[in-house]
Amino acid sequence: MTFQTAAEKYDYVNQMFARIAHRYDLMNRIMTVGQDRYWRSLLVEQANLPANGSLLDIATGTGDIAFEALRQRPDLQQVIGADYTLPMMQVGQQRASRQNGARRLEWSGADTLHLPFPDNSFDAVASGFLMRNVTSVAQALAEQVRVCKPGGRLLILEIPRPADNLPGQAFRLYFHHVVPLLGGWISGQPDAYRYLPASADAFLRPDELKQAMEQAGLQHVRYQMLMFNTVALHVGTK
Questions:
Q1: Rounded CA gap, 229 and 223, in Å?
Q2: Helical H segments across 73-205, by residue range
Q3: What are 112-138's pLDDT values in tens digits?
Q4: Total structural domains in the chain?
Q5: φ/ψ (deg, to 5) at 129
């Protein structure tokens, strides 16, 4: 799947996520056999948030990372879930209304390329499955680093480009053939779940994303491979 301009990709991704918002969480649970919850729990643990700290969950979607942060750390002073696809956040707000602690979650319509927050605002900036969808990885990282406090952590949970080996080929087979069938059946939007594997194929390898984070000024960048090396959790310190 190719786009002629950055604006074309931006519009497509926004509209696509809006169409699948009502089935996004269910499809994630099925597609990952429930492992996505563990990944987000691990991300929050790796954020190393201080007491009364603050977290920005950018491209929050329905709020999974933000909800997990409040579950693990009810002492947090501020947790913001930000996204430019408003229907996704509306699903998250419905979830929050049913959870007492989650009602403290703040929501913001925001684009990761132009974050509406001051410099050095958050103890951690996290994203889940965002970076494949941005039109500029470098600009997204620069903005996330800008709003992170010195000494804070930037965390990226993402599906990197599959390796060119037998496990990578097996994952591509599953991703390109099984996932679109499941996604089409569950969400009624098979095109969205054809975009998903195509976006991973066009994304960075784990080492390449690590290098991009270092070029953005982050230190002590490391990553952990999950789910048979098909998902990566990157962590860097400002």
A1: 11
A2: 86-97, 137-147, 166-173, 179-187, 190-201
A3: 999 999 999 999 999 999 999 999 999
A4: 1
A5: 60, 40
